[in-house]
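Supplementary material to the annual report.
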Amino acid sequence: MNVTVNGRQHAFDGDPSMPLLWYLRDELGLTGTKFGCGIAECGACTVHLDGEAVRACATPMSGVADRKVTTIEGLSPDGSHPVQKAWHALNVPQCGFCQAGQIMQAAAMLAANKNPSEAQINQTMAGNICRCGCYQRISAAIKSAITGA
Amino acid sequence: MKTIIENVSRRRFIVGAGGLVIAAQFISLKSFAEMHEDYKTGAGAMPHGVVTDPHVFVTIDKNGLVTIIASRAEMGTGAARTTLPLIVADELEADWSRVRIKQSPGNEERYGNQDTDGSRSVRHFIQPMRHIGASVRLMLAMAAAKHWGVEVSDVEAKNHEITNKKTGAKIGYGAVAVEAMALPAPSADQVTLKTADQFRYIGKGTIKPVDQKDIIMGKAIYGIDAKVPGMKFAVVARPPVFGGKMVSYDATATMKVPGVEKVVVIEGTPAPAKFAPLGGVAVVAKNTWAAMQGRDALKITWDDGPHAVYDSAAYRAQMEETAGKPGLVVRNDGDAEKALASAAKVVTAQYYLPHISHAQMEPVSATAHFADGKLQVWAPLQSPGGTRDELAKKLGIKPEDVTVHELLLGGGFGRKSKCDYAIEAALLSKAVGAPVKVIWTREDDIQHDFFHTVSVERIDAGLDQSGKVVAWRHRSVAPTIFALFVPDPKHESALEMGMGLVDNPFDIANLRCENGEAEAHTRIGWFRSVSNIPHGFAVQCMVAEIAQAAGRDPKDMLIELIGPPRIVDPRKSQDVKDFWNYGDPFESYPIDTARLRGVVELAAEKSDWGKPLPPRHGRGIAVHRSFLTYVATVVEVAVDEKGKLTVPRVVTAVDAGFIANPERVHSQMEGAAVMGYALARYGEISFKNGRAQQGNFDTYKVTRINESPAQTEVHMVQHGLDVPSSGIGEPGVPPFAPALCNAIFAACGKRIRSLPIGDQLST
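Predicted assembly:
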C-alpha cells in the first residue's frame, strides 16, 4: 500500500494493524506527533487525514492506504499557520508535549468552521489533554487565530 | 560551591607566590558565597553545590554568538532553558537575539547540582547566574581595555559591544571574545552586578520561551523522541504488584510476532530499592508496535509478594483508626489536650486524600547504547547528574564512562526525578548489544508510578466562648516517600512534616501536631507540591469549617488565625526535630505572617471577596506557604441543582520574593489551577489485590478544556532583589483544592472532606 505523508508518497508493506502513530514515529522518524495514551483519549497524536483531525494512535495503517496524512511537521514550512502564530504570540506551551496535537486539532477545526463558538471550541478541543494546564491560553489563542488579532 | 572556592584560592596562591603579597591577596579575595552573605540559600549544601566558573557556562565565538549552557532539566516551567539563561545574558549585557542555549549532559562535578525539583531552579541559581554573566562582562571589558591600552574603568560593555569611553571607539563582543574567554575567572569581589534599574531582561517577562518555536513546529526533541542509528524498541512486562517477582514465563507466542527480536529478563531489587527498576520481562523489537504485540503474547506467572493484599479501601479504614488515636508528637505548643477538654466548642474534621499519579503527558522513556564498556543514555530526566551516578553504579562502570544526554521533558511533576526507566534501557542495551529505546505505555506509566502518598488528616480545633480558636490538634497519617530509601519507615520524614504540618503559621496558643504510623504498600514518590497537598488541604478546609461553626466569614477567620505580623519559627516549638525549611536558611526565608496575610488580602481584594454572587455560586479561599513562597487562591464555583460543578473564576496572589520572569510565573499559576482541579475533582489511584485499578485517561481522569477554570488571574506581590526569590513550579497547587472545596460549601452547603470530589455533589 501507499500513503502520502506531508506531500511525500511512501510504500508500506508492514503490519496493516499497526497504528499510524508508530509508523510516523518509528519508521519515518516524524517525532512531532506524540504518544500520550494509545487509546484516543488524550489527542497528543492528532494528525490530519485528508484534512480531518484523527488520532494517529487509533488509526491503523490499513485505514490510511492511498490517503493524505499531514503531521505537525507538514502544517506549514515555517510555523506561519495562523494557529501556530497565535500559539507563539500568546506563549501557549509549557512543557509543550501536547501542543502539536492541540495545534493540529485547532487547525482542523478552523479549516472546517472559520468562526466556531466558545461551546464549539470547548467541545472540539476537549479531546486534547494538557497536563501542564495551558487551556486558558489555548482558548485565547484559538480566538486570536479566528479574528487574526 | 566548595570546589570553586578552592579552585579560585589555588589560582590566586600561585599568582601571588611571595611573602606578604600572598597574605594581602588572600585576605582581599572574596568567594562567591562571601559576596552574597545577604542572599544565602541552601544551594551550596546540595550535592555538588553551585559552580560559578563562567568558563563552564558561557562561550562566545568570533562572530559574537554567545552560547549559554543550560544545566538543569527543562520540563515546562521555563526555568532551565529560558529564565536562568536570560539572567546570565542580562548581566552579560548580551543581546538576546545573539544568544543560543545549549543543554549540558548530566555531570554535577562540572555543572553543580542538576537535580531539578523542589522548585529550586531560580531560587538557588539566580545569584550564581547573575555572577556568571557579570564575570563574563568584566572579562570582555578587560580584554577590550588591553586591546586599546586603557584601564578597565575606561571601557563599558553594553548590549553586545564595548565602548572606549575615552575615544568613543566601539568594538563588538566577538572581536575580543577569544582574549576575554582566555582570562581566568575574576574573583568575586571584582565582579559588579547590575542594579535592578539596569535590568534588560530580568524581571520583565518579555523573552519568548526558548523552545517555543520548535515546539509549535513539532521540531522540539523530547526524551521519547531520541533517535539513535540501529536502535531497537522495547516494552517491559512489570510485576503487577509492587514487590512482586516473575516466577516463570513462556515467550513462544511472543517470538512469533513479526518484528520481535528478543526477550530479556530484568531483575527487580528488593525494597528499599530507591529508583531501581521493578524488574520483569522485556520484549525487544524493531518497532514499538511489534514490542507491544509481543508483550501481549507473553505468558507470565508472577509471585505477587507481600503487598498482594493491598486494598486502598481497607487501608483507608486502617489509617482512619490510626488518626483516631494519639500519634508521635511532632510539635507541641502550650497544652492542646487540656485546651480542647475545656473548650466551649470543639470542631473536628477528618480528611482523606488518595494516591494520585503524575500522568505527565510524556510517559517515561529512555534510549541507551552500551558499547565497549561505555554507556550513552538519551532521556527526559529531572536529575541528569544523579542518573549518571545511578547508571554507573548499576552497570558497575565509572561515571566518566557514562554520558547522559538530557532531552526535553514532556512534563515531570516529580516522576522524572526517578530514573528507573533509564536503568531499564541501559540494562537492555547491554543485554542485546544494540541501542534500545524503552517505551512505557500510558498504562505502564500510571500503574507503575511512584505514587503521591495517600493520607488521612484529622484536625480537632477548640474554640472559646467568643469563637476564638484556642486549641488545634492536627494528626497526619501517611506513608512516607522515604520508604524508597530506608527499610520499613513508619513515620513521615522531617521533610514531609515541614510541608504544611509542623510549619503551621497560626496564632494559636495550644497547637499540637502528631504523626501516626503508616506503612508503604506501593512505590511512594514525590508529586508536584508533595505533602503540602494533604496538609494544606486539611488545614485550609478546617479554617472554613471553623468559620462556619463560629458564624464567621472564612476570609476573616483566616486572617484572625494568621494573627499579627511576626516570624513564626517552628524550631522554637517543642518536639519539632530537624525542621525542614526546604533546605534553605530560615534567616533568608523565614515564615513571615505579614507576607502570608498579604497574599490573602490581595487575593480577596482582586476576587471581589464579599460581593454578592448569583444563586448556587460561591467563593472559597485558601492560603499556603510552600517552597518558601506564599500563595493565596480564591476559587469561584457554580454548582447547579444536579450537582454539575463549574469554575468561572480563579484569582491567585503570589509572593515569591523577587520575580525573575513574571510571564512564566503566570503560566505556572494558571497551570496549577488546572492540576489542582484535576486532583480535587478526579485524582485517585485505588488498589485492589495490590494492583492499581486505573490505567489510562479513561479511568484516571484529568482536567479537560471544557471543564477547566475559565479564567485564572494571577497577581504578584512586587519585591526588589532584597527579598530572595523563592519557588514557583509547585506552590500554586496546594491552595487550589481547599479553596475549591470551600467554594463548593459556600455555593451549595456540601462539605467535601474526601478527595476526589467525584460524584459526591450529585448524590
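The longest strand of chain B covers residues 629-639.
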